[in-house]
Task: inverse folding
């Protein structure tokens, strides 16, 4: 385990792409340990409607790479001539080259995690949508924190969801399930990570009302 305080763990768990070690195998026991920690996250009625597919078969990972990259292509194409709206964010260049690096190397990942939950949010009211998503997302973040605490890393990705049906077909996921994203799993190259850019607090936090920003 890395020597990190809780605050250091929470503020330095980054989207890791360029510093994923594609050549080092990750033991299944380690992934299962991180999942056990993730399962302690809150979830509606403690119903554990989440399901988790871990992929460590290289041939299958190569197929997830095709779907992930195809999904990102669809996403990029959806912007047309207007271009990507996040381009004005500080550090956008570095995000772009980092995303590109992961795309190019996805097929080399030692393992990939696909979390999902039972149910579809399409057409549901806000209560039911929030309850479904809110019964899975924090467990995924816990998983990423548990990886980081052990010298591994991941990156939250949703790119493949443009092609969720292809992924469902590949892995035999019934249509009733909602896929949450796709998460690389690898040791990181080095373990020193820093807090990232975020908007200033007074722009995003309001006391007794909406923030000014
Ligand atoms: C909902 C969501 C979707 C994301 N989708 C992708 C993705 O498809 N591909 C990718 O490389 N990164 C993706 N990211 C990672 C973000 O780009 C990253 O979290 C952001 O740039 C901030 O970097 P940091 O997490 O290191 O602070 C996603 C993050 C979130 C939360």
Result:
């Amino acid at each position: 385990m890395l020597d990190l305080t809780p605050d250091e763990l929470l503020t330095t768990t980054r989207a890791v792409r360029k510093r994923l070690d594609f050549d080092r195998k990750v033991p299944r026991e380690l992934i299962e340990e991180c999942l056990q920690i993730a399962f302690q996250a809150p979830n509606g009625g403690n119903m554990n409607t989440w399901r988790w597919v871990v992929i460590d078969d290289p041939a299958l990972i190569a197929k997830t790479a095709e779907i992930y990259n195809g999904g990102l292509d669809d996403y990029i194409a959806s912007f047309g001539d207007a271009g990507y709206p996040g381009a004005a964010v500080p550090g956008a260049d570095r995000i772009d080259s980092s995303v590109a690096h992961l795309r190019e190397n996805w097929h080399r990942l030692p393992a990939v995690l696909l979390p999902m939950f039972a149910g579809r949010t399409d057409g549901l009211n806000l209560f039911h949508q929030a309850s479904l998503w809110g019964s899975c997302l924090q467990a995924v973040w816990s998983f990423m924190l548990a990886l980081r605490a052990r010298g591994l890393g991941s990156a939250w990705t949703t790119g493949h969801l443009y092609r969720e049906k292809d992924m469902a077909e590949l892995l035999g996921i019934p249509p009733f399930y909602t896929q949450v994203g796709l998460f690389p799993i690898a040791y990181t190259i080095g373990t020193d990570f820093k807090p990232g850019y975020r908007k200033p607090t007074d722009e995003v936090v309001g006391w007794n009302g909406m923030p000014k920003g």
The CA atoms of residues 1 and 150 lie 5 Å apart. The domain at 6-204 is CATH 3.40.109.10 (NADH Oxidase). The chain is about 40% helix and 15% strand.
